[in-house]
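Dear colleagues,

As part of the handover before I leave the project, I'm documenting each prediction I ran so the next person doesn't have to rerun anything. This entry is a single chain, and its sequence is reproduced below.
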Amino acid sequence: SLGGASVHERLPFLFKILCAETPLSIQAHPSLEQARAGFARDEAAGLDRGAPNRNYRDDNHKPELICAVTPFWALRGFRPIEEISGLWSSPEFREADSPLLPPQSEADLGRFFKDLLELERDARSELIAAAISISRSIRPHRNALPEAGDPNAAHYWVQTIADHYPGDVGILSPLILNTISLRPGEVTYQPAGVLHAYLHGVGAELMANSDNVLRGGMTPKHLDPNELLRVGVFRSEPPAVLTGDTEDVPGGTCVRYSTPFDEFAFDRYLFDGGPDKAGLREGTAQIVFCHRGSVSLECRIDPGRGDGGRSTAAAERATIVSGQALFVDAATREVYASADEAAELFVARVP
């Protein structure tokens, strides 16, 4: 139990600080129904749950959110059809010896992606060479990361992915998927089926408690193109970038990020420094992580939670500094945070 009146037997989310120095894999996550069906299939096939060729390690879905701690680059969702077709109409692609035809409509996007994954090695190499040639002509110098919002950033990432994953179909992904940049404090989230890849930066990542990942490239791990095609969502969509809703709290401000997920919520507290104490959500399990500075926490615990039979509420205090975290269970009646100097706190919690 997570304490108090929590209905969860285990924490329904996972929280971590992700540091992407080099591009990570292209992936999508299943819906809850797909995860249950896929897990049952893998169990019936007798696959060990730790087997490298297993797709479903549990029966849960895995929506996720990432909040940029540093400037953060990612791929998320398909570009508009006209953008993909325009890029694929470049002379370099037309001259490549490849049977791949650009998508003609939204309904054709799934066919296009399937054909891309199933290209023969020589045809794939021709397209990769064409993509690198196009990108080098548009962005011949790569001395530093692109600035946020750079309209030609995709061409930086084509070349960078080629450096790290030579010959991989993922080299073409920035010309197919939206290339997005997050400034510190901005968030993007990934519902079921949305193809995405984290390219560079540090972020606070929050996701449902699952290990179910279907990968599509840029990785030495197991690939199952057929299952990715079954799980993936093949439609153009603008990237979802959230700046959050800011409210004043004692001692500073709180930024709350709304997502359509039931397993987790994410808050970011910015303290100015002073004696005032901000009240955090109470009666819910949460992980409190100090990103910057030093934060003092004061918790008041409900009696009789099974930790010694306390008959009266008891106060507990702790101080966490940058890089440290504290777990607060659902039996905690009141939670207050304060900072003597400027500080930043991330709170991952059950809604």
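The longest strand covers residues 196-208. The mean pLDDT is 92.

All the best with the project,
I.
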